[in-house]
Amino acid sequence: MKKRGDLEKRGDTIAAMKHAGLIITFGLLFASTACAQPSAMIGTNPPGSVLYVVGNALAKVATESGTARLTVQPYAGSSTFLPMLESGELELGVNNAIDVGLAYNGPGFKIGGRNPFPHTPGLRLVMRAFPLMVAPVVRRDSPIKTIQDVKGKRVTGEYPANLAIWYNVFGELSSAGLSWKDVRVVPVAGLNEGIDALVQGRADVSTYAINGAKVREADASVGVRHLSIDCSPEGEKRLRAAVPGYYPRRVKKEEAAAVVDDVCVVAYDAYVIAGKGAGDALVEGLLKAIWNDGAKLAPFHPLLREWSRDKMAGAEITIPYHPAAMRFYREHGAWTAEVEQAQLRLIKGGR
């Protein structure tokens, strides 16, 4: 016959085993959930840029939603991380419609007589985010008052690390009927270096996104202001002809940093794109998070206030959608006949 003490010890052991079993079970469930949550790197432009802020906003909202775990990886510019999307080293990126359209179509497609982007036919669109807005930047005390006054002045150019900025300046000049031949080019590597050249007095004109952190820094340092492009009917026509996908947008005085008068700026769409390494679960997880919690993006940057569900899928696109994005938008009633036609045209090699 077993003693009472032995029975109590046995009961304690069984209870301990049950408790340990519960801990292991919960641990396995937690590990299973973590493993089920797809993780990825999302490439952006350098810190200080609007697209870097956007990448961080997307990563935070998606990660907090529990549907995708994203880590932001900044690069000198889009031209440096596009090949990594094509090779599968990088899963996601934040870019713009012009860059990715040139990269997707390859060297046979040119804007302004050039296409320096690496051919990346594997790029796919996850969602349209919001309109990017850029405008020339001059010192606040500069005698340059209109875009026509830029003729003959020192303008930052080349931008090998941020090829998009070359097209920004090309479009801005084109609105006034000017070209790169009408200005003195100050070579810079990237967008931040362009503002540095302006602050240091090596350039008279640079360009940057509206409400960019780098512009705020420059304004606090030496005082800068955005310059309006030519938004007359003729100017708009020249802008749209120079860079398909660009369109004019008006910004009111003091509506953004360094906007000291009402200005007209260049606008074009920002994209969230996927490379060959982006699986369906990752794309679906990101889209689910933004579809449900996109309103949480607004506090990160004024431009993100323009996010809305109905803008995520649209027919005015320069690369085709990812298969998982197509399925998501169909399930949520956002895939229209016009979007389907645009998708088929791009897949077949149309522009």
Strand content: 15-25%
What's the CATH H-level homologous superfamily of the largest domain? Answer: Periplasmic binding protein-like II
**At CATH's second level, what is the architecture of the largest domain?**
3-Layer(aba) Sandwich
Q: What is the 3D shape?
A: globular
Write down the CATH class of the largest domain.
Alpha Beta
Structure overview:
This protein is of the alpha/beta class. The protein has two domains: 1-36; 37-347, D-Maltodextrin-Binding Protein, domain 2 (3-Layer(aba) Sandwich), CATH 3.40.190.10. The chain has twelve helices and ten strands. Strands 1, 2, 3, 4, 7, 8, 9 and 10 form an eight-stranded mixed sheet that branches. The longest helix has 33 residues, at 4-36. It is globular. The N and C termini lie far apart (89 Å).
